[in-house]
């Protein structure tokens, strides 16, 4: 049923450094994802730094039209929120489409976790509970706002959440894009897939999704922030999709408190509720989840400030390379830079 054969094999992408796209000169590469490359650029007309995401047509399923991309870009460009990366411009060339957007002076949550794991002090090898709460408040505000506007993100994952340390602010990237480039077409219907590790059961099945799919994906992110790894079995991406689609009890090897009793039970239970396989058992909406977060946050903060032993560092593993799990592996076979290996089969 679920075919990943529509995904294209990776080929070397052209380096566009130094080129001009419309009003912007591309300066250097910031990062690379499954479908394209993000550059730091300089917008000559307004003399400001910007980020430019270039999505190569060779990476996309042939059925995707530029129109589809432009429509999504339009939706996102109208989603104005202080925690959503603003899109300034959209353009097309023969080989690629590009988005000019606000440059965020931050790092993705996956890079943040990797940096933390290297900290010499075991207690600082994970985000503090206070930071996890701050991330949650901001992401849930964004999701509440977007869901009210009728937009589901569909690809909430650490790579799409950028953390600005100095202001302790989170910016959400790639709204709407997943709807375009993670869609796999088969004969009968289009499947919208997220990233295997963070995908909700209903999305893995190809059901019509609502905001609760984002709550599940964000629950996965929180679980990872809490433990420093995602407690899922090391498997091929297709297998992870299948396990999720079937709502198998093996979706996770346990919740936060099971893996680390130092994680406060109420925090673990809060995350677990967003990870209910049946969406009717999750929080009814991002607003409900945010209200619950605000209700439990004071007690959690008090507990952390009181210095509950190792509450902020439930699983202080020494850094062991780029992997996520205790064995240093990313269970979906993703490369540390967020790229996926060749798929199909
Ligand atoms: N506006 C931005 N400002 C600063 N850095 C950014 C911005 N947008 C993206 N990045 C960085 O570029 C990296 C690559 O982003 P990209 O969206 O291409 O890939 P991804 O999110 O890892 O995977 P996918 O292609 O599946 O979405 C991100 O992880 C992030 O660190
Ligand atoms: Mg992204």
Plain-language structure description:
Strand 5 and strand 6 (96-101) form a beta hairpin. The model is unreliable at 1-9 and 309-345 (pLDDT under 50). Helix 3 packs antiparallel against helix 6, helix 6 (211-227) runs antiparallel to helix 9 (265-274) and helix 9 packs antiparallel against helix 10 (286-305). The protein has 2 domains: 18-101, 2-Layer Sandwich (Phosphorylase Kinase, domain 1), CATH 3.30.200.20; 107-317, Orthogonal Bundle (Transferase(Phosphotransferase), domain 1). The longest helix has 20 residues, at 129-148. The two termini are 12 Å apart. It is α+β, with helices and mostly antiparallel strands and 345 residues long. It has helices spanning 66-77, 109-117, 129-148, 177-181, 201-205, 211-227, 237-245, 256-259, 265-274, 286-305; strands at residues 20-21, 24-32, 36-43, 48-56, 87-92, 96-101, 107-108, 161-164, 169-172, 183-185, 190-192. The structure holds adenosine-5'-triphosphate (ATP) and magnesium ion. Adenosine-5'-triphosphate binds next to strand 2, strand 3 and strand 4.
Topology at a glance:
Layout: E1 20-21, E2 24-32, E3 36-43, E4 48-56, H1 66-77, E5 87-92, E6 96-101, E7 107-108, H2 109-117, H3 129-148, E8 161-164, E9 169-172, H4 177-181, E10 183-185, E11 190-192, H5 201-205, H6 211-227, H7 237-245, H8 256-259, H9 265-274, H10 286-305
Antiparallel strand pairs: 1-2, 2-3, 3-4, 4-6, 5-6, 7-8, 8-9, 10-11
The structure holds adenosine-5'-triphosphate and magnesium ion.
């Amino acid at each position: 049923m679920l075919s990943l054969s529509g995904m294209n094999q990776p080929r070397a992408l052209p380096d566009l450094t130094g080129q001009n796209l419309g009003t912007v000169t591309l300066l250097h590469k910031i990062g690379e994802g499954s479908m394209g490359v993000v550059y730091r650029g300089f917008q000559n007309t307004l003399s400001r730094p910007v980020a430019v995401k270039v999505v190569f047509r060779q990476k996309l399923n042939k059925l995707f039209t530029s129109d589809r991309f432009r429509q999504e870009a339009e939706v996102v460009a109208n989603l104005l929120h202080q925690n959503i990366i603003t899109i300034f411009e959209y353009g097309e060339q023969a080989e690629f489409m590009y988005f000019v957007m606000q440059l965020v002076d931050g790092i993705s949550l996956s890079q943040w976790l990797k940096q933390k794991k290297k900290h010499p002090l075991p207690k600082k090898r994970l985000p503090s509970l206070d930071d996890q709460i701050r991330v949650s408040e901001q992401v849930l505000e964004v999701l509440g706002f977007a869901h009210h506007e009728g937009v589901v993100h569909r690809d909430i994952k650490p790579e799409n959440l950028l953390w600005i340390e100095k202001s302790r602010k989170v910016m959400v990237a790639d709204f709407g894009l997943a709807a375009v480039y993670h869609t796999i077409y088969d004969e009968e219907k289009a499947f919208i897939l997220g990233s295997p590790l963070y995908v909700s059961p209903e999305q893995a099945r190809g059901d019509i999704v609502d905001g609760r799919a984002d709550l599940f994906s964000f629950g996965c992110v929180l679980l990872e922030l809490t433990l420093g790894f995602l407690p899922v079995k090391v498997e091929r991406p297709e297998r992870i999709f299948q396990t999720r689609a079937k709502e198998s009890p093996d979706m996770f090897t346990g919740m936060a408190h099971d893996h680390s009793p130092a994680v406060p039970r109420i925090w673990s239970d809060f995350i677990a509720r967003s990870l209910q396989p049946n969406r009717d058992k999750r929080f009814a909406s991002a607003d409900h989840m945010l209200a619950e977060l605000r209700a439990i946050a004071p007690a959690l903060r008090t507990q952390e400030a009181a210095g509950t032993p190792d509450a902020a560092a439930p699983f202080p593993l020494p850094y062991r390379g780029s992997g996520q799990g205790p064995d240093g592996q990313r269970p979906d076979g993703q490369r540390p830079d967020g790229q996926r290996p060749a798929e199909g089969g």
